[in-house]
């Protein structure tokens, strides 16, 4: 029986990049003190969610990966003996940027990075202005405690991404994310949106038989026009909620995942064994209409 304790850090952010990094490090320490072995930070945790506007000055928030933030977090990971999942704004080259998550192992080593594959372009989420789509493919990382798969925010909506990550051997799928409600929406719309967001991710757990951990930011941003809805959660491989955060508060929670359950779930609900891979070729088409 293999059990792993994962830490979810749900926090609000400010305009001060160093302040946010220091706060995140303090939260990692808090999670480690509660027994966490793997700690996941939310998407773009060193800044406000800046993609609400198309502003060239925001490119100044980007940094190399590895770089200053990963350097600081590697020291913490080694000191505490924890794996850290760190979502950052990557400057790859002059004029070339990605939404990227770095993975730091429990000995402080840099294991690599995943670049967000699916990039949104919605009102207040103008990510295509800033981010080049990922070109590293889907990734899993062999950490001290588990083989983990990383996907980022908009990736959450795509079963193809979670399926490929699971087929690569991920024991756990982590989703750093930043999503919220426009504050002029009605409450029914808010709840419908949140329920859709949570449901699609829980379905990835069920379809693949692996735990899913989703970590979202919280707080009002965009001059009060956006309330990031928090609601971070962890499920087992059958989609059962093991932890659900509030919509309003900063929370640092540690959840124990029993990775041996995946074999049980996959034996009794043999979705992987029953896959008709010989019939899936049309999935590579944009739309099946003969063109």
Automatic annotation (TrEMBL):
Gene Ontology BP, a term: putrescine biosynthetic process from arginine
SUPFAM superfamilies named among the record's database cross-references: Carbon-nitrogen hydrolase
Keywords: Hydrolase
CDD domains: CPA
Domain of life: Bacteria
GO molecular function: N-carbamoylputrescine amidase activity
Residue ranges annotated for the CN hydrolase domain, each copy included: 4-259
Gene3D superfamilies in the cross-refs: Carbon-nitrogen hydrolase
PANTHER family cross-referenced by the UniProt entry: BETA-UREIDOPROPIONASE (PTHR43674:SF2), NITRILASE C965.09-RELATED (PTHR43674)
Protein name: Carbon-nitrogen hydrolase
């Amino acid at each position: 029986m293999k059990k792993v304790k994962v830490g979810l850090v749900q926090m609000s952010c400010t305009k001060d990049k160093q302040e946010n990094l220091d706060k995140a490090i303090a939260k990692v320490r808090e999670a480690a003190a509660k027994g966490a072995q793997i700690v996941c930070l939310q998407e773009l945790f060193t800044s406000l969610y800046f993609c609400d506007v198309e502003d060239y000055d925001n490119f100044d928030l980007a940094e190399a990966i590895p770089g200053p933030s990963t350097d600081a977090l590697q020291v913490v990971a080694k000191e505490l003996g924890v794996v850290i999942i760190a979502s950052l704004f990557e400057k790859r080259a002059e004029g070339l940027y990605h939404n990227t998550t770095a993975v730091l192992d429990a000995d402080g080593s840099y294991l690599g990075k995943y670049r967000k594959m699916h990039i949104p372009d919605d009102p207040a989420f103008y990510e295509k202005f800033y981010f080049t789509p990922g070109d590293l493919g889907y990734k899993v990382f062999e950490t001290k405690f588990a083989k983990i798969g990383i996907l980022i925010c908009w990736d959450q909506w795509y079963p193809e991404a979670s399926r490929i990550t699971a087929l690569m051997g991920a024991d756990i799928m982590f989703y750093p994310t930043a999503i919220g409600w426009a504050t002029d929406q009605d409450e029914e719309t808010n709840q419908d949106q949140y329920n859709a967001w949570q449901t699609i991710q829980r379905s990835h757990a069920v379809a693949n038989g692996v735990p899913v951990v989703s970590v979202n930011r919280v707080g009002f941003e965009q001059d009060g026009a956006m309330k990031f809805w928090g609601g971070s959660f962890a499920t087992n491989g059958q989609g059962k909620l093991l932890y659900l955060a509030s919509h309003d508060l900063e929370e640092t929670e540690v959840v124990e995942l029993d990775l041996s359950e995946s074999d049980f779930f996959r034996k009794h609900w043999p979705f992987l064994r029953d896959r008709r891979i010989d019939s899936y070729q049309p999935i590579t088409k944009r739309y099946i209409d003969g063109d």
